[in-house]
């Protein structure tokens, strides 16, 4: 089921990504490498599960959720095939949680913030809340998937509580990191923030 949902999003993402510009490719590659390394630094929580930074919010906000999904797919595939992290059987679920929920939700929250206010403070509030909410909802999905799994030794309440609680803290950190990267880009390379955002047209994408 999760694979089928992922395939639908992959179809539109790779279709949109065929016309990437010379500026989009290196930015996407740099952020993908950065959060590949960040995701390798995780810590254990209940029942053998782990928590870590995601990276989807910054990818979605700078390049759009379609490219965010492609980047996260690359990260998760390398982790599954080379490092045995997650594995192929859970690949579809991981892509849904971190590649779709954790990229589309931050982008939507950020776009809503831009429509509500045009101030710099409002924009950064949107960046922070987008990262936080995206991380928490991705963790909620993972908790539900784990809780309903027949191989998981704990039930839904414990799995969801553990995942969401830890990722609220991680989401705060991810929000701060995302704001920091946006601020750094504004000072050093503001042109990169003006790149087209690859997203569904109803979300304001190109």
Indicate the overall shape.
globular
Reading side by side through the largest sheet, how are the strands ordered? 1-2
Helix content: over 70%
Kindly report the CATH topology.
Arp2/3 complex 21 kDa subunit ARPC3
Distance between the termini: 29 Å
Overview of this protein structure:
The structure is a single chain. With 206 residues, this protein is mainly alpha-helical. It has a single domain (2-192), classed as Arp2/3 complex 21 kDa subunit ARPC3. Helix content is 73%, strand content 2%. The chain has eight helices and two strands; from the N terminus they run ααββαααααα. A hairpin with a 5-residue loop joins strand 1 and strand 2. The longest helix has 33 residues, at 156-188. The model has no long low-confidence stretch (mean pLDDT 86).
